[in-house]
Amino acid sequence: MGELSVTKEIILGALSTVQEPDLKKDLVTLGMIKDIELGVGEVRFTVVLTTPACPLKEKIRQDCEGAIHNLVHPDLKVVINMTAEVTSIQQQDPLIPGVKNVIAVASGKGGVGKSTVTANLAMALKKAGAKVGILDADISGPSIPVMFGAEDMQPLVQEVNGKNRIQPINQYGIKLISMGFLAPTESPVPWRGPMMTQALRQFFGDTNWEELDYLLIDLPPGTSDIHLTLVQLIKLTGAVIVTTPQKVALSDATKGLQFFKQNSINVPILGLVENMAYFTPAELPDNKYYLFGKDGGKELATKYKVPFLGEVPLVQGIREAGDAGKPIAAEEGPTADAFGQIAANLAQQIAINNAQ
Ligand SMILES: Nc1ncnc2c1ncn2[C@@H]1O[C@H](COP(=O)(O)OP(=O)(O)OP(=O)(O)O)[C@@H](O)[C@H]1O
């Protein structure tokens, strides 16, 4: 490379031609390039993505390398450190100062797998390197403790900076709080409005969440007092709607969508997840049986112009893992990959919304 004298400005100039495909601006303008270091015949720098679950990570890395080779020198060795700093909504909620994004997971109909999707998305986001928590507000049947093998656990109350704080359960690196910890499942307490409001307020304000990139809220099916309390209590990043492809579930999912979209509530829909999209027997992994109809969720997303985050098959392993207390997304395999892809799409939508 003899004569070549490369400066940080030249490197920045080359990288300013690389676009962040979602945010539609270049990496330099977005402040995503850090710590440029020049060595003999090589350049090192860090790219700070908006989420560790970024589905475009590899493309952005290749585009950076390509820009330097094309615009600076083809033989320059390029060493890129890909990191991430999750972005947050502009006005973070003072009730939960360390929590960057709060995502409501809702469904119209019961039993469509909303808790299963919440648990597995949390696992997948955690696996990608994010700090994740779940607040299980589904008093109709708090299944999150079971899905995390935490049904016999109780959160402790500890004094932090002179204030009593609830310590969330930490299971597989995910922080959990559940209405189920307050009311044992076998003796369902008839929750009344003020009790729920109080419990939710406490779960947000008095829990020692510390730093979280994503806090997922598992809501009861349908639209209830809890939904209203939640949107009044906390500034949500957005909502995810879980549905199955059959007609009854879709019409209920539409009600869920409309609840968040109505003017007085105005919570962005981050996307729709189609659960039990098709059945795949373990012994015939390439066969797909569309038991509940095909593409219902996808079509609903198109109709209401909301992102389609992906589909989850009906497989025995998902139910077994849930019952065994460790979400399947914690393991490796095609089902975990499906959740990984949905989590990446969700993280991407959050980053896009936060940039607007
Ligand atoms: N894709 C799937 N494949 C196999 N089993 C699934 C799948 N999704 C959910 N299940 C199973 O279906 C049952 C109901 O799921 P889950 O509790 O997640 O539904 P829900 O919508 O949260 O229910 P609720 O109405 O109680 O809130 C569970 O036993 C779960 O393991």
Automatic annotation (TrEMBL):
<protein>
    <recommendedName>
        <fullName>Iron-sulfur cluster carrier protein</fullName>
    </recommendedName>
</protein>
<comment type="function">
    <text>Binds and transfers iron-sulfur (Fe-S) clusters to target apoproteins. Can hydrolyze ATP.</text>
</comment>
<keyword id="KW-0411">Iron-sulfur</keyword>
<dbReference type="Pfam" id="PF10609">
    <property type="entry name" value="ParA"/>
</dbReference>
<feature type="binding site">
    <location>
        <begin position="108"/>
        <end position="115"/>
    </location>
    <ligand>
        <name>ATP</name>
    </ligand>
</feature>
<keyword id="KW-0479">Metal-binding</keyword>
<dbReference type="Pfam" id="PF01883">
    <property type="entry name" value="FeS_assembly_P"/>
</dbReference>
<comment type="similarity">
    <text>In the N-terminal section; belongs to the MIP18 family.</text>
</comment>
<dbReference type="InterPro" id="IPR002744">
    <property type="entry name" value="MIP18-like"/>
</dbReference>
<dbReference type="InterPro" id="IPR034904">
    <property type="entry name" value="FSCA_dom_sf"/>
</dbReference>
<keyword id="KW-0408">Iron</keyword>
<dbReference type="GO" id="GO:0005524">
    <property type="term" value="F:ATP binding"/>
</dbReference>
<dbReference type="InterPro" id="IPR044304">
    <property type="entry name" value="NUBPL-like"/>
</dbReference>
<keyword id="KW-0547">Nucleotide-binding</keyword>
<dbReference type="InterPro" id="IPR000808">
    <property type="entry name" value="Mrp-like_CS"/>
</dbReference>
<feature type="domain" description="MIP18 family-like">
    <location>
        <begin position="9"/>
        <end position="71"/>
    </location>
</feature>
<comment type="subunit">
    <text>Homodimer.</text>
</comment>
<keyword id="KW-0067">ATP-binding</keyword>
<comment type="similarity">
    <text>In the C-terminal section; belongs to the Mrp/NBP35 ATP-binding proteins family.</text>
</comment>
<keyword id="KW-0378">Hydrolase</keyword>
<dbReference type="InterPro" id="IPR027417">
    <property type="entry name" value="P-loop_NTPase"/>
</dbReference>
<dbReference type="InterPro" id="IPR019591">
    <property type="entry name" value="Mrp/NBP35_ATP-bd"/>
</dbReference>
<dbReference type="InterPro" id="IPR033756">
    <property type="entry name" value="YlxH/NBP35"/>
</dbReference>
